[in-house]
Here is the input.
Amino acid sequence: MTSKTSGPATGMPSRPSPRLVLTAVPNWGLTITDLRQGLSMWRLWGGMGWNDVLQRYRRSLLGPFWLTLSMAVMIGTLGFLYAHLLRTDVADLMPYLCLGFWSGVSSAAC
Here is the structure.
């Protein structure tokens, strides 16, 4: 007697599996709801971020303010250097330099 099964072991061709097709349909209502819920939990993600900074700089003398202080020293030093090299006023250059570094750090964090 022969078996009635099909597939590669029996030599008979097997049926192709159905193809799954996904289509992306934006549901803006769910997106807005998700954003609202995420923003309403600002205490949770703010606390987790602050805890991460505290854990990272736990043994440092300056603590979590070392991030801010080191960035301020770097921007200040580069501001005076660029102002001298470009022969412009420091007060005119500094806002652009600060925003440039801030956007660079923000995009690198994502």
In short: The chain has a mean pLDDT of 81.
